[in-house]
Specification:
Blueprint (H helix, E strand, L loop, with lengths): L3 E11 L9 H16 L3 E4 L30 E6 L2 H8 L2 H9 L9 E12 L3
Antiparallel strand pairs: 1-3, 1-4, 2-3
Helix pairs in contact: 1-3
Length: 127
């Protein structure tokens, strides 16, 4: 019997270009968040980004339609695979990821994100 997995897509728009001081807090937190996820119970893996160190990319990076007209051609996003929703929730609301959320509940002040969205899917693990 195949084991089900939870696919999690996280997306946001920066409040300014990615190299600006306004999003520095977000950029500085990213490596610690990826490392914490990799060590989290129930984490299966994540897609990397072509041309960047880290895990290999699972395919072309695609953004939600609402990015059109935003003025951005790229945005922070991640696609990860988890054993179950409980593991994902435990990671999201504990440790360095939770600290980032607590620091800036509106997402815009220190994280540098103006909008965020998440899509999840639950199904069989890929063969």
């Amino acid at each position: 019997m195949e084991q089900a997995r939870l696919a999690f897509y996280n997306f946001g728009l920066h409040v300014a270009p990615s190299d600006s001081e306004a999003v520095e807090g977000f950029v500085l937190r990213e490596p610690a968040n990826f490392e914490a996820a990799a060590r989290a119970c129930g984490f299966v893996g994540r897609s990397g980004y072509p041309g960047y160190p880290g895990p290999r990319s699972w395919g072309p990076q695609v953004f939600p339609r609402y990015m059109e007209g935003s003025g951005f051609t790229s945005a922070p996003s991640s696609l990860s695979l988890w054993a179950d929703i409980e593991s994902l929730m435990a990671f999201s609301y504990d440790g360095v990821h939770a600290d980032a959320l607590k620091t800036c509940p509106q997402l815009e002040c220190e994280t540098g994100l103006a909008a965020a969205g998440t899509v999840v899917g639950f199904g069989p693990s890929p063969a």
